[in-house]
C-alpha cells in the first residue's frame, strides 16, 4: 500500500482501535454539545471512533451496498488475525471503488465539456449560415423576457384565465380525433396496479386520466390510448383485451357519439405470452407502429362515415408519452403526416448523469442494464419530429432537455424570432418546449408558463364534510394511531429516495415521538418475485425499521387499490399530518399535486433537512393551517379541464397537417368501371401462371373454372367482366401472336397504380454493390429468381405484386433492369434514392410523354416536412471536408472527403461520393452534429460505403412501405421484404415490423453497417428482434426453390 498514505493511516487507526470500539453506542451526556465536522456529522472529540468515522465517511461516499455486509462480517469476527485480514481487504475495495469513481467523474467531466463545446459550435455554425436579415431588436426574444415580475400563482391564474377564452364550447363543432401512446407497463382504466413494478407507476394513471379528460372537452370526439397488448399468465386477463372503453365522451347526449369517447387500444407486439419490461421492448417498436397504423386507418375510415361526410377523419395530433412511445409517435406521425406532441415524463440523459455520479456502474454497464443509449436516441428522434414538447417545469427545459443534441435554448430563440417575422430558416428547426405565448381577449400577447399536469379532484372534498375515514389497512400498524401521520406514496424505486426518509425518521427522536410514518410502496406479493431494484429498496426499508426499532411507528401495507388513495390522504389530513415526496428526480410528480402542492422545499440528499422540515410543519400548527388554506385556493389550477384547455390551445397553434392527395383515388363504383387495361393485365398475369403439367390457362378456361363453383349471381358478374375483357383482347392467331401479348401488355398505361389492388407485395431490397458502388450482377439474378419463385405458385402469386427498394436513383435502377432484360412494369412500385422517391411504372400520371417516369407528387409532398436541401448540402460538405476542431481553416491542398454526386442528387436526396472512405464519420456522429445545427433529416451510407445520402426526416425505405399502406391500402402485414444479410446503414430498419422478412444469406458480402454507430452506442439487438417468426433465412445461394421455401415459411407467421 506504498504511495497511499491516507489508506495506511486509516487502516492503522482501525486496527489499533480494536473490536471494542465497534460496539460503542451513540449515548452522550445530556449536557454535551457535540461538534460537527465539515460534512455535518456529529462527533465528540473525547469519544472519537476512527472505525465508525472511516466507514461512514468513505463508504457513504462511494455508495456501495456490499460494503455494509462486509462490515457486518468484520464486526462478527472474533479472531483478531482474520478480522485484520477482512479489514485490509475492505480498505482495498474502498480504495479501488474511490479510484474508479474519480476516474469515471473525470471521464464524465471531459464528455460534458466536449458536448458543450460541440453544442456551442453547432449553434454558431447555424447562425452563421442564416442570412443577417433580422434586426438586433428582433433577436432579443429571450426566455428571460418571458419571465415577468409576478408571482407564480398570479402568473398561473392569469394564463389559465386567458386559455379558457381561447378554447371553449364554441369549438364543439370540430369533432377531433386524438391519439395518445403509452407503450410500457400495465395499463387499464380501473383497479390500476400502480407500484406493481417500475413500469407501472404514475405515468399509467396520468395517461388514462388524460384520455378521459380530453374526451370530455368540447370539440374532441374520440381519444384512443394505445398501449401494448399482453396475453400472459403472469398478468390479469384484462391486459389482453384488444379494446377497453374509458368513457363515452361529450357527444353521447346529442346522439352522434356512436364511436365517441375515450378508449384503450391494445396493440400486440413482441412475444404474445410474455410481459416485457420496457428495456426489452425496443426491437418490437416497429411492429407496434404497424399495428397502430392499421387501427388508425380503420378508425379514420369509420369516423369519416360517421362524422366526416365520407372523408377520412385523420388524427388531430399523435401524443407520445415517454421515450418508447415518443419513438412510436415519431414513426406514426411521419407515416400519416400529422403533428406529433411529446411528453418525456423522465429523460434518459438525466438518468445517465445521475447513475454516472453514483459511481457504482460504468457507462457500459448502465447501457447494458437500462438500454440507456437506445432510449436517448428515441428521445432525440422524438425531438426531431415533435411540433410541441409538453414540459411541467422550467428546470425540465433548461437542465434536462438542455442536455440533448436536438434542443438548444439559444438557437431556438433565433429560429423562433425568424419564424415570427416570416424569415426563411433554411430547414433548421427547434421544437417548442411550451414556454409559449397565448393571445388574451384583447388580442395582445401574454406569456404562458409550462403546462403543469392535470389531476382528477372529484375525490377531494373539505375534511369537515367527509364521513369518518376507515383506514384499518394503515392504522393496524400503529401503537398510537392518533399521532400525526407522515405520508409518502411512491414505487419502491431507488430514485424515490424512500430509504433516506426512513433514516431521517429513525434518527430523529423528536420526530418519532411526535408522528407516525406511512409508506405506501406500491403492491407486492413476494419481495423475492420483485425486480432487483425494487426488492433492494424494500429489503433496506425493512432492515432500517428493525435497526431503529420502529415497530408500531411505521406502516407499510402490501396492497392498496387506486380508489384507496384519496382515503389515505384523508387519513393524513384527519390526523393533521403531512405529505412528503423525497424523490431525487421528479419533473412534476402527481403526488405533489395530490398533496395540494403546498409546503416546504428541502434538499432530498440532506437527511437532517428532511427531518427538520417535517418537524416544522407538524409542530407549527399555524403554518400547517396556512399551507392547507393555500392548497384549497390553488388546487383547481391543476385540474384536468384547465390542463386540457391549455393543451388543446397549444396543439391548435401547431401547423396542422394530414394526408392530402393530388392524384385521384378511385372509390366505390369507380373501381369497377376503371380502365379495362388494368383488368386485362391482371387476367393476363393469371394466364401466365403454369399448372403442374406445364399447361397455360386461357381466358375461356379461367372463366369456366371460376364460374363452375360460384353462385348464379356471382357467375353473371364474372361472365360480364370477363366478356368485356375478352372483347378488348386481340384474337390469338397462332403461337407467335400469343407470345406477343405480354409485350403489348407491358406497353399499356394504367389509369390507376396496380398496387392499390394487390393483396400481397414482395419488396426486393437487396443492397448488393461492387467495389465502386455500382450494382452487382447478382441483383439481377436475385430479381429473376424471385419472380420465378412467386409465379410458380398459384396461391402465392394470386393478387400479388412486386416492388424494388434501393439507394440508386431512378435512372440507375432502370439501367440495371435493362441489363437483365427486366421490364420496369413488372414492378408495381420503385422506391429509389434510399426511400426519397416513389415511382409506379405503367401508371399514366407517373409517365411523361417521352416515356420517362415521374415521381409520385403526393409522396414528395408527404416527406417535405422540415426538409432543408441547401442547408443540409452546405453543412455536410463543411463537416466532412473540414479537419476536426479546425473549423474552416482547412488547407487548400488537403484532400476532400466527400464530393457532391450531382447525378444521384434530386430535390429530396443529397448524395455525396466518398472520395476518402477512411475519413468517413459514423452516422450517429454526423446526425448529432446536424441536430446541434437545427437540421432534422435521415442520413445513411450506402452502395458499399461509396455514397453518403441525406434525405428528409420523414423519408426512408421503411417509411415508404407505410406510405403505401396509407395511400393505397396495402396492409404492411401482407408485405414480404426480401433483403440480404448485410446492406446499407438503413438495412436494420427494413428487418423489423409486422411484415414478413426473408434474409438471403451469402448474397451481400459487404455492407455499410460498420459506419452506422460509434463504440458505446446501442447495438443491433436493440432494433431488430433476436428471434421472430416473422424473420426467416434462406440457405446460401440464389435458387428459386430456396426462396419459395422461405416465403412459405414466412407466410405461416402471424407474430410472436
From TrEMBL:
Compositional bias ranges of the Basic and acidic residues kind: 23-45, 115-127
One Pfam family cited in the UniProt record for this chain: GT-B_Sucrose_synth
Domain Sucrose phosphatase-like positions: 789-1001
Record-linked InterPro entries: Glyco_trans_1, SPP-like_dom, SPS, SPS_C, SPS_pln, Sucrose_synth_GT-B1
Residues annotated as signal peptide: none
UniProt keyword terms in alphabetical order: Glycosyltransferase, Transferase
UniProt pathway: Glycan biosynthesis; sucrose biosynthesis; sucrose from D-fructose 6-phosphate and UDP-alpha-D-glucose: step 1/2
EC number: 2.4.1.14
Domain Sucrose synthase first GT-B residue range list: 177-398
Top EC class of this enzyme: transferase
Single Gene Ontology MF annotation: sucrose-phosphate synthase activity
Entry keyword annotation includes Glycosyltransferase: yes
GO process annotations (BP): sucrose biosynthetic process
Catalytic activity: beta-D-fructose 6-phosphate + UDP-alpha-D-glucose = sucrose 6(F)-phosphate + UDP + H(+)
Region named Disordered: 21-45, 115-139
Domain Glycosyl transferase family stretches: 480-600
Subunit structure: Homodimer or homotetramer.
Family: Belongs to the glycosyltransferase 1 family.
Protein task: Plays a role in photosynthetic sucrose synthesis by catalyzing the rate-limiting step of sucrose biosynthesis from UDP-glucose and fructose- 6-phosphate. Involved in the regulation of carbon partitioning in the leaves of plants. May regulate the synthesis of sucrose and therefore play a major role as a limiting factor in the export of photoassimilates out of the leaf. Plays a role for sucrose availability that is essential for plant growth and fiber elongation.
Protein known as: Sucrose-phosphate synthase
Protein source organism: Cocos nucifera
Lineage: Eukaryota, Viridiplantae, Streptophyta, Embryophyta, Tracheophyta
Amino acid at each position: 500500500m506504498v504511495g497511499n498514505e491516507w489508506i495506511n493511516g486509516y487502516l492503522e487507526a482501525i486496527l489499533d482501535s480494536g473490536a471494542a470500539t465497534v460496539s460503542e453506542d451513540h449515548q452522550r451526556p445530556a449536557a454535551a454539545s457535540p461538534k460537527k465536522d465539515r460534512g455535518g456529522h456529529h462527533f465528540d472529540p473525547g469519544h472519537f471512533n476512527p472505525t465508525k468515522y472511516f466507514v461512514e465517511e468513505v463508504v457513504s461516499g462511494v455508495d456501495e451496498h456490499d460494503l455494509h455486509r462486509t462490515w457486518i462480517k468484520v464486526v462478527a469476527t472474533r479472531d483478531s488475525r482474520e478480522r485484520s485480514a477482512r479489514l485490509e481487504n475492505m480498505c482495498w475495495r474502498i480504495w479501488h471503488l474511490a479510484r474508479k469513481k474519480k476516474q469515471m467523474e473525470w471521464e464524465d467531466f471531459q464528455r460534458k465539456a466536449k458536448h458543450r463545446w460541440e453544442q456551442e459550435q453547432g449553434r454558431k455554425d447555424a447562425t452563421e449560415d442564416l442570412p443577417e436579415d433580422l434586426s438586433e431588436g428582433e433577436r432579443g426574444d429571450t426566455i428571460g423576457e418571458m419571465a415577468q415580475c409576478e408571482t407564480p400563482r398570479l402568473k398561473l391564474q392569469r394564463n389559465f384565465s386567458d386559455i379558457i377564452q381561447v378554447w371553449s364550447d364554441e369549438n364543439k363543432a370540430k369533432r377531433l380525433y386524438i391519439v395518445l401512446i403509452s407503450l410500457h407497463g400495465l395499463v387499464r382504466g380501473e383497479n390500476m396496479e400502480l407500484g406493481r413494478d417500475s413500469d407501472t407507476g404514475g405515468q399509467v394513471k396520468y395517461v388514462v386520466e388524460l384520455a378521459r379528460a380530453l374526451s370530455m372537452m368540447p370539440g374532441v370526439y374520440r381519444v384512443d390510448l394505445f398501449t401494448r397488448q399482453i396475453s400472459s399468465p403472469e398478468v390479469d386477463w384484462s391486459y389482453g383485451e384488444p379494446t377497453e372503453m374509458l368513457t363515452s365522451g361529450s357527444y353521447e347526449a346529442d346522439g352522434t357519439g356512436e364511436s365517441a369517447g375515450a378508449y384503450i387500444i391494445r396493440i400486440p407486439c413482441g412475444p404474445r405470452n410474455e410481459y416485457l419490461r420496457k428495456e426489452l421492448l425496443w426491437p418490437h417498436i416497429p411492429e407496434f407502429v404497424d399495428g397502430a397504423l392499421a387501427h388508425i386507418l380503420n378508425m379514420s375510415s369509420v369516423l369519416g362515415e360517421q362524422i366526416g361526410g365520407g372523408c377520412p377523419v385523420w388524427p388531430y395530433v399523435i401524443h407520445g408519452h415517454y421515450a418508447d412511445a415518443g419513438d412510436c409517435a415519431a414513426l406514426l406521425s411521419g407515416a400519416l403526416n400529422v403533428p406529433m406532441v411529446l411528453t418525456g415524463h423522465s429523460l434518459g440523459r438525466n438518468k445517465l448523469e445521475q447513475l454516472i455520479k453514483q459511481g457504482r456502474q460504468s457507462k457500459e454497464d448502465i447501457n447494458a442494464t437500462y438500454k440507456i443509449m437506445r432510449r436517448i436516441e428515441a428521445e432525440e428522434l422524438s425531438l426531431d419530429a415533435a411540433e410541441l414538447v409538453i414540459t411541467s417545469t422550467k428546470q425540465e427545459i433548461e437542465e434536462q432537455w438542455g442536455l440533448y443534441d436536438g434542443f438548444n435554448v439559444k438557437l431556438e430563440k433565433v429560429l423562433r424570432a425568424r419564424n415570427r417575422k416570416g424569415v426563411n430558416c433554411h430547414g433548421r428547426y427547434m421544437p417548442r418546449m411550451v414556454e409559449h405565448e397565448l393571445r388574451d381577449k384583447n388580442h395582445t400577447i401574454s406569456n404562458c408558463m409550462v403546462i403543469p399536469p392535470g389531476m382528477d379532484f372529484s375525490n377531494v372534498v373539505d375534511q369537515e364534510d367527509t364521513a369518518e375515514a376507515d383506514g384499518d389497512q394503515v392504522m393496524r400498524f400503529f401503537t398510537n394511531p392518533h399521532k400525526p401521520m407522515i405520508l409518502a406514496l411512491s414505487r419502491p424505486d431507488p430514485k424515490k429516495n424512500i430509504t433516506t426518509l426512513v433514516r431521517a425518521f429513525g434518527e430523529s427522536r423528536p420526530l418519532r415521538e411526535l408522528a407516525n410514518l406511512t409508506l405506501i410502496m406500491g403492491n407486492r406479493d413476494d419481495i423475492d418475485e420483485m425486480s432487483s431494484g425494487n426488492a433492494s429498496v424494500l429489503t433496506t426499508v425493512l432492515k432500517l425499521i428493525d435497526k431503529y426499532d420502529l415497530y408500531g411507528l411505521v406502516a407499510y401495507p402490501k396492497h392498496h387499490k387506486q380508489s384507496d388513495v384519496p382515503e389515505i390522504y384523508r387519513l393524513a389530513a384527519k390526523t393533521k399530518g403531512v405529505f412528503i415526496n423525497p424523490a431525487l428526480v421528479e419533473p412534476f410528480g402527481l403526488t405533489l399535486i395530490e398533496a395540494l402542492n403546498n409546503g416546504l422545499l428541502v434538499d432530498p440528499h440532506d437527511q437532517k433537512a428532511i427531518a427538520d422540515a417535517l418537524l416544522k410543519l407538524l409542530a407549527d400548527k399555524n403554518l400547517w393551517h396556512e399551507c392547507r388554506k393555500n392548497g384549497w385556493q390553488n388546487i383547481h389550477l391543476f385540474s384536468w379541464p384547465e390542463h386540457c384547455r391549455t393543451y388543446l390551445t397549444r396543439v391548435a397553434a401547431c401547423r396542422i397537417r394530414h394526408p392530402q392527395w393530388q392524384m385521384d383515388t378511385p372509390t366505390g363504383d369507380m373501381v369497377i368501371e376503371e380502365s379495362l387495361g388494368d383488368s386485362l393485365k391482371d387476367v393476363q398475369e393469371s394466364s401466365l401462371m403454369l399448372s403442374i403439367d406445364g399447361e397455360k390457362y386461357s381466358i375461356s378456361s379461367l372463366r369456366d373454372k371460376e364460374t363452375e363453383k360460384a353462385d348464379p349471381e356471382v357467375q353473371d358478374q364474372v361472365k360480364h367482366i370477363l366478356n368485356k375483357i375478352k372483347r378488348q383482347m386481340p384474337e390469338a392467331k397462332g403461337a407467335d401472336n400469343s407470345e406477343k401479348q405480354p409485350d403489348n401488355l407491358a406497353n399499356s398505361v394504367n389509369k390507376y397504380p396496380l398496387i392499390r389492388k394487390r393483396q400481397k407485395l414482395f419488396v426486393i431490397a437487396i443492397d448488393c454493390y461492387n467495389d465502386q458502388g455500382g450494382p452487382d450482377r447478382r441483383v439481377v439474378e436475385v430479381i429473376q429468381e424471385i419472380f420465378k419463385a412467386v409465379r410458380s405458385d398459384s396461391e402465392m402469386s394470386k393478387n400479388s405484386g412486386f416492388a424494388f427498394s434501393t439507394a440508386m436513383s431512378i435512372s440507375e435502377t432502370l439501367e440495371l433492369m435493362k441489363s437483365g432484360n427486366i421490364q420496369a412494369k413488372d414492378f408495381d412500385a420503385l422506391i429509389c434514392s434510399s426511400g426519397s422517391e416513389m415511382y409506379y411504372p405503367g401508371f399514366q400520371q407517373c409517365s411523361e410523354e417521352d416515356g420517362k417516369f415521374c415521381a409520385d407528387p403526393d409522396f414528395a409532398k408527404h416527406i417535405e416536412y422540415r426538409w432543408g436541401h441547401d442547408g443540409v448540402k452546405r453543412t455536410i460538405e463543411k463537416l466532412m471536408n473540414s479537419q476536426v476542431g479546425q473549423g474552416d481553416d482547412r488547407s487548400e491542398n488537403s484532400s476532400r472527403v466527400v464530393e457532391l454526386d450531382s447525378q444521384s442528387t434530386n430535390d429530396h436526396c443529397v448524395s455525396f461520393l466518398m472520395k476518402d472512405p477512411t475519413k468517413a464519420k459514423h452516422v450517429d456522429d454526423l446526425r448529432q452534429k446536424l441536430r446541434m445545427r437545427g437540421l432534422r433529416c435521415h442520413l445513411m451510407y450506402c452502395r458499399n460505403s461509396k455514397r453518403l445520402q441525406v434525405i428528409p426526416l420523414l423519408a426512408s425505405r421503411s417509411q415508404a412501405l407505410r406510405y403505401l399502406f396509407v395511400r393505397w391500402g396495402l396492409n404492411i402485414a401482407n408485405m414480404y421484404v426480401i433483403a440480404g444479410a448485410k446492406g446499407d446503414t438503413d438495412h436494420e430498419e427494413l428487418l423489423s415490423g409486422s411484415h414478413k422478412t426473408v434474409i438471403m444469406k451469402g448474397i451481400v458480402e459487404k455492407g455499410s453497417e460498420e459506419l452506422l454507430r460509434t463504440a458505446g452506442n446501442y447495438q443491433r439487438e436493440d432494433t431488430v428482434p433476436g428471434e421472430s417468426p416473422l424473420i426467416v433465412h434462406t440457405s446460401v445461394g440464389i435458387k428459386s426453390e430456396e426462396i419459395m421455401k422461405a416465403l412459405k415459411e414466412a407466410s405461416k407467421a402471424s407474430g410472436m
